[in-house]
Amino acid sequence: MITLIVFIAVLALLVLVHEAGHFFVARRAGVRVDEFGFGFPPRLFGIYRDPETKKFVVLGPRRSQKLLSHDHRADEKPEAKHAPYHEFPATVYSINSIPLGGFVKIKGEEGQHKDDRDSFAHKKPWVRSLILSAGVLMNVALAAVLLSIGFMVGIPAILGDELPNGARVFNQKVEIIEVLPGGPASVAGVLIGDSVVNVNGEAVADQKEAFDRLSTASPAGDVQLDVRRGDTIQSFVITPTVITEIGRPGIGVALADTALVRLPWYRAIPAGIIATGTFFVEILRAFGTIIVNAFRGAPVTEQLSGPVGIAVMTGQAARLGFSYLLQFTAILSLNLALVNILPIPALDGGRLLFVAIEKARRGKTVPKGFERALHAAAFALLLFLVIIVTAKDISRLF
């Protein structure tokens, strides 16, 4: 239950920040925003402030479909240019029934009402590009803020890495940073993030000592491994086997000396910005590896995690502590930014691609019917991919 609550809170933060980027830049550019929604329709409830009465109006689920079911074909009729389009007189803020994302419904985002000054379609390409990219920029900015806060309160770091000047190190431990799927430790129940306390009843001071003791184990004898998980000590009796990847007996874990690193605020802010760039490059490389492997015939879904997998990892990060959750949320925010900027229809990057095509064709747009169909088809494919990956996540859990 705690995992679900934390996951929804993290997801809400990422989505709201992303959509807030589109929202505020659109409003700043003079574009009307019809709805700011968390989750996908149907709408559970919404609220808006009536500009005449200055009172808030609450909307129930029965009125949830009208705003999103606008007939775009009607916009092509001459009499539609002056017909009322807005169901509500102000921006509706809504909570919707499918909590896997969010949206900002902007007037004219699909080419309609091009003659209206407050329409997205009326704006110049550079203004539309700025509105479309604002969500991605906000996710990158959020990651920088979270990592900066992390450095102020203490952020997880591997001690073998070079630490910034003025860093204070505390809570040192020998941490399990990788568990071989299907290996002896994984089967026994050892998790990433567990910290090694004892090996065969003897305390270990650092990664080297723990590694040496585990390396001397043979398949003929069991290893008793005591780890700290949260506030408890858990013991595992593990039978080592020959690990194919290293060619010798082991229990299938990777260890590292880790600690929380804290910086004064004036060093934490630039360190957070630098860390954001570093993480972004690493995520970009990981995406590149996935794409290369896909062309080589490797199953892409095995390398991805859907909502269930991300929820599990969020819960694991939360159990490790606030600093770990901060760092994990920052990494998720960067992942969301990178995915959204990909030139795939239905994503921000795909819409930017159509703006770029329009600019290259000197103002001649792609037929809106074709563009809408392409976005709808891509969204359906992405939803199908999410379902497949989610099924894989569930199969890994059971």
From TrEMBL:
GO terms for molecular function: metalloendopeptidase activity. Keywords: Hydrolase, Membrane, Metalloprotease, Protease, Transmembrane, Transmembrane helix, Zinc. Its cofactor is Zn(2+). This is PDZ domain-containing protein. It is a multi-pass membrane protein. Its main location: membrane. It comes from the Bacteria. It is found in: Membrane. SUPFAM superfamilies: PDZ domain-like. GO terms for biological process: proteolysis. CDD domains: S2P-M50_PDZ_RseP-like. The chain crosses the membrane at residues 130-159, 322-344, 373-391. Residues 166-204 form the PDZ domain. Belongs to the peptidase M50B family. InterPro entries: PDZ, PDZ_6, PDZ_sf, Pept_M50_Zn, Peptidase_M50. GO terms for cellular component: membrane.
